[in-house]
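Hey team,

Filing this mostly as a record. A colleague (T.K.) asked me to run one chain through the structure pipeline before their review meeting, and I want the input and output archived in the tracker in case anyone asks later how it was produced. No errors, nothing strange. Just documentation.

Input sequence:
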Amino acid sequence: GDGACEFYDMFIPENVGANADVLLTVHGGAWIFGNGSEFNEDCREAAKAGFVAVNMDYQKIQNGVNAYDMDDEIGTAIASIKTELENLGITPDNIILAGHSAGAHLSLMYAYTHYNDCPVNIAFVVSNCAPTDFYKDAVEQTTQMGKLAHFALTGLTGNYIFKSLPENQKELIDSVSPVTMVTSEVPPTIVVQGDKDEMVPFSNSADLYNA
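Output structure:
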């Protein structure tokens, strides 16, 4: 895109063939901080292992976008990556989405809602410390994520979310909560989190795994 945050860095294996699998990393930062370069070294290592590895940045809440816009940006990035590779004579067979924290949330949200129309087949998605159930987090308030959930949700949904969490806002909150999107058809998921996480409740990963 044209925004300052709308870019990606691509790392291509030295001896790449006519077909390749792609690893796309999505950084964390509470949807307001960070940039894709935090995964540069990981992408270099993935390229050495034979993957076309890409780290992407995206517009943040303060840029006036919400989770649905960020979701669209992932799709736009994947379409651009596919076109760029094809122009180099490389056919992307599969893509792996791997995110951390806010980036893991966005990776899950995209994979679970676009597995049928993603420009490249989604092989699997990796969730590292993803917020997955905002309603539960906001009710229980056991970590920083829970205590600030209504602020995050206001930005992510583009609607003011009351701290009292009225029942009529649950459907809206669920629309950005990946745990509610799980079906038997979503891509395979690797779930990673430590149980001493003080930001995102460990139950988010446990509940996602169980779902």
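Quick notes for T.K.: Strands lie at 8-11, 19-26, 52-56, 91-100, 121-128, 189-192. Helices lie at 40-48, 67-87, 102-114, 134-140, 144-147, 149-157, 170-174, 202-210.
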